[in-house]
Amino acid sequence: MARTTGTMTELLRAALLAAPSLNAIEKATGVRRQTLAWFMRGEQVSIHLASADALADYFDIVCTMPAAPKPKPKPTTPKRKRG
Questions:
Q1: Number of domains comprising the chain
Q2: Interhelix angle for 22-29 vs 33-41, to 10°?
Q3: Diameter of the chain by CA atoms?
Q4: Rounded Cα gap, residues 15 and 56, in angstroms
């Protein structure tokens, strides 16, 4: 896939819309064709994680964890003179 960012839902829907055959996807992944069609059209807003994993594997969609953000340094305040 050319697109590299977006939510998993967006990526899977785009891949399904571009796919030539839901039957082939069903045979390769085990995810029911009807589930694929409903999800693709937005009639079903979510799918099981196992189905998403199978589809991501089929479409070569890779999820990566971002690097942990570096802690921000504490702001320093100028010391006030007492007196």
A1: 1
A2: 120
A3: 82
A4: 9
pTM here is 0.72
| 3-state secondary structure at position 63 | coil
- Pairwise CA distance, residues 61 & 15, whole Å: 9
In order along the chain (83 residues), what is the average pLDDT of each group of 10 residues? 72 94 97 95 92 96 84 78 69
Type of residue numbered 17: L
Q: What is the pLDDT, as a whole number, of residue 78?
A: 72
Q: Which amino acid is at 18?
A: A
How far apart (Å, rounded) are the C-alpha atoms in residues 20 and 26? 12
Contacts of 6 (CB under 8 A, 6+ apart): 14
* Structural domain for 24, as ranges: 8-58
The one-letter amino acid code at 27 reads: K
